[in-house]
Amino acid sequence: MALDTLIQRIAEEAEKEKAEILARAESEAAAIIAQAKAEGRQEAEKIRERGEKERARLREKILAAARREARMHITNAKEESIALCMEAIKDKMRALTGGEYQKIVEGRIAQALDTTEGMYMIATRKEDRSIAQKLGIEVKGEREGIGGVILKSADGRMEIDLTFDFMLESERDTIRRMIARKLLEQT
After folding, report:
1. What is the strand order of the sheet 149-153 is part of?
2. CATH architecture of the domain formed by 98-167
3. Whole-prediction pTM
4. pLDDT tens profile 128-165
């Protein structure tokens, strides 16, 4: 399916950027852990007379906080990577043109309806007008978007949103999970 290929291609392109983000996050995490260890040793030295047990407890507490902070940095880096991938998907969909774009939109219309009789279209791109003409659908307006169309029945009782914006929003959680799975495979 075109979306899977597109997502795979975007995931691959995002891998390089993800690696840089993760490298920075891991570097920051290592620095934080190193600093926390140093602070732990200094604090342990100051309280040595209060006992070995207290020193170990405090050192572990500091290290645990550093580990949590390091995990937070890595998580934030992954979230940033996911957001970048989502934007890259939008950019790729926005960049679809010509026959590839027309094939996708016509396919989505065919999946949604057995017939376009009694329907009109709201376009998001200039190319949508030629698609409408080819399918014998009247265009009654335009809407801002990255691609796709909205089909409405003449009586107003039915509206089918086939825009890329709506598709991405409705599949957002699934796409995020797919991207996150790819990121987890790499870490």
Report:
1. 138-142, 119-123, 149-153, 159-161
2. 2-Layer Sandwich (3.30)
3. 0.57
4. 888 888 888 889 989 898 999 999 988 888 888 999 99
